[in-house]
Fold:
Amino acid sequence: MSEDERALRARLAALEAEVKAESDAATARKQAAIERLRVERAEREAEKRALGRDAQVARRRGDEGGDSQTGDLAGAIELARRAHGVKEELTRPRAEHEKSWLISGGASMLFGPIGWLYAGSFREAVPAATATVLLAFLVSKFLPMILLMPALLVLLPLSGIAGIVYALSYNREGKRARLFDRDKKGKPRALPRGR
Structure:
């Protein structure tokens, strides 16, 4: 075997060792990340169970004639649990068919009900967007924009919140859902008596 062949084989062996070391390091990093996720998930589950137990204990104390502070504690724990659920829903990765709550909220805050068309129910978004455009056209003819700014500073953030809720309900239900007048949705209309 010539000197060049030996040098080439030595280089190939060194490259193979380097590739194997990089592959082993990547596998170790992946395993460490998976283990961190397992630990975080276990901590979250333990936290949820502890909050649930605390809420049950607080409810029992409230039922046994405890003071109003116990009821307040149970309410605060329930509110914290709901806030945690909302936080998890907002931070989880978005699937391909889902709507982005950031886009929905941003468009709704910038353009008012016109932004609702992204994720909202067309039964609510189309009339609201049409009314917004007509109202903006009429008001711009008669009033200076400076007089509208206080109303817009209140209405546009509310519209942004509605856009976020529309996107979250779209992702939860898998379709456009109505935000207003939901209690009538799905309930059959009762017939008048005597029919």
Notes: The helical segments are 3-63, 68-91, 101-111, 122-142, 145-173. Residues 61 and 67 are 8 Å apart (CA to CA). The mean pLDDT is 81. The first helix runs from residue 3 to 63.
